[in-house]
Amino acid sequence: MVITERQTTLNDVASRAGVSPATVSRVLNGNYPVATSTRDRVLEAVRHYDYVLNVHARALIHAQSGILGVILADVSDPFFSEVARGVQSVTAQTDLLAVICNTGSDPDQELKYLNLLRTHRADAVILVGAGSEHPRIQGELVRHAEGLARQGSLLVFCGRPLPGGTTAAGAVDVDNHGATELAMVHLARLGHRRILYLAGPPANTTTTARLAGALGAAKKRRIARRDVTVRAGDLSRRSGQELVEEALSEGLDFTAVLASNDLMAIGALVALRRAGIGVPDQVSVVGIDDIPIAADVTPALTTVRLPMEEMGAAAAKLAVQERMPGSRSAPPVQLIERESAAPARTD
Amino acid sequence: MVITERQTTLNDVASRAGVSPATVSRVLNGNYPVATSTRDRVLEAVRHYDYVLNVHARALIHAQSGILGVILADVSDPFFSEVARGVQSVTAQTDLLAVICNTGSDPDQELKYLNLLRTHRADAVILVGAGSEHPRIQGELVRHAEGLARQGSLLVFCGRPLPGGTTAAGAVDVDNHGATELAMVHLARLGHRRILYLAGPPANTTTTARLAGALGAAKKRRIARRDVTVRAGDLSRRSGQELVEEALSEGLDFTAVLASNDLMAIGALVALRRAGIGVPDQVSVVGIDDIPIAADVTPALTTVRLPMEEMGAAAAKLAVQERMPGSRSAPPVQLIERESAAPARTD
DNA sequence: CTGTTAGCGCCTTCAA
DNA sequence: TTGAAGGCGCTAACAG
């Protein structure tokens, strides 16, 4: 039914105001002198029609759209929503529209969004968090980085390494390796020697970096490789819980759980509580990220703070201000001692 | 430095393939017969240049952009991120780009985004959660709803009432009133007679509806109006904590806290724990929303489940499928009994 | 200070 | 099955 009437255009406004379309354009953009009386007539006409500019027509000329793409795994994961917030804290002061795309951790979905964003002539695109290490994916990423650069846009890798061979992209580094290292050293100092490590999904840049950090630190602190058990999950709370339940039912012997993100650490807390195992008296738990709720669970989670919001803001600044390949470092990671980790029991 | 080369266009592809631009357009859109051999040459040229279509040029013709706007207060609030996830679960199966805009609960920011989205010829816009009750804002909302309708687009109110006088918008209703009612009745049944109610910001549709639900239920259960103390916060965890700390320091007498959202309820839990007050033995706490972490705090939060993800999905379906005024109801709210509420102490 | 003109990249008739 | 031509709404020269 809806007979869509033609939208009101600059021309409509112009004829009502009795001026040329160019003049209307000038008052709207305001970067050109226009007589006050004419401006007033134009503005009256704009209000009369409730006229709003058509970005597409303008984008056709400038080859820019005012869109900043943000590609991440899942908005409802606090890690990502904090980063997204950081991004939006900088776009809010501009006319940029931050477009948040959820991939559900699917690399192909990521590629699809990249293409879609390219199609929209996004002024820049930020890729947040872990990425696939698969060569095909990495290759496609490089292709898109170059394509975006050719469009005068920029691809920014936020919290994941630049794929080898890209010079066309920007990056905001975060010390994933150092984060787990810090956590593992902390546990070692507390006397823990048998550790359950909850890793993320395989073939994933962050999983790899965090695992390497943990294992490297364990080695340095003389914890035998066979005493750290690595189990892979999907970074969800549920997955952390299941992993620990399995370990428990297998009778695995450990005095500490090091989860590669806070969500899994919280899952671990739940599993331990249900099994009647005291935290931190019997088992210590340490997470990574320091998402807001980490402070509110019981016992409050000891974790390593990653500067999530700052990462987002830094990536956004790189994207909107510099608009050319470069890199920034996020602030250093930091151990946050709360209640879930304590000296190992000596039984 | 970056000398932005002209982007590759349909014409470039056409000349490399030795065909007319019209033909390229036809193979790209695929809704028109093209000889297989020509199609192959065209596709080769597309790949050769890594050509991607320009949405703006197309939008200029179709007056549609493939953008679905989602305006909400804060992505990092679990309530909103769950709704956003629901929206994206439906857009993921389409070529629509969901654009998430954070207003920080500022109605003027909301209006600004609405305008920006209109400028982008968004196919539809979803307004999530509470809105201002201020007449000026409501009037502007109506204006935008009509403007969007005129553009062949649609404004959908998700979880907030339609402003009076709009017929140009869609709506997904959620029973805010019923939610607090349920919670209050639950507390009354448990024998609580002196209640601290943690409300949201004033002049806000959700605050009003939830408060009315709570107060109405209290009255029905014969709880005197003076026995329910209402304090207004900003829906953050911190605010819930502060409100309870204040109440405690004033020596306010209450046996239960009813928070108008889970985040504030969690803040209340923290304040109570710090004050050495046992939950639920000495004071019961009930929240509203049932955000994912509600189950993971200690004690696990008793709350009323709002179908957040379903609301988002329903709104998105309304927006993309029907594209015309109408309304859907979200599933009913539901009391989730966990550990934070128990019979009132009888001292 | 203001009007005229010529496209930006694509799609859609209309012809061939 | 394909090509040619016009125009979507706006802005950036270029005149005046």
Order of helices and strands of chain A: HHHHEHEHEHEEHEHEHEHEEHEE
Q: Give the overall average pLDDT of chain A.
A: 92
Q: What multimeric state do the chains show? A: homodimer
**Which protein chains make the most extensive interface, counting residues with beta carbons within 8 Å of the other chain's beta carbons?**
A-B, 65 and 64 residues
For the report, how would you describe the main beta sheet of chain A?
6 strands, parallel
Keywords:
347 residues, 12 helices, six-stranded mixed sheet, homodimer, six-stranded parallel sheet, alpha/beta, DNA-binding, 44% helix
Written account of the structure:
- 2 copies of one chain form a homodimer.
- Chain A is of the alpha/beta class.
- The first copy, chain A, has 12 helices and 12 strands.
- In chain A, helix 1 packs across helix 2 and helix 5 runs parallel beside helix 12.
- The structure holds a DNA duplex (16 and 16 nucleotides).
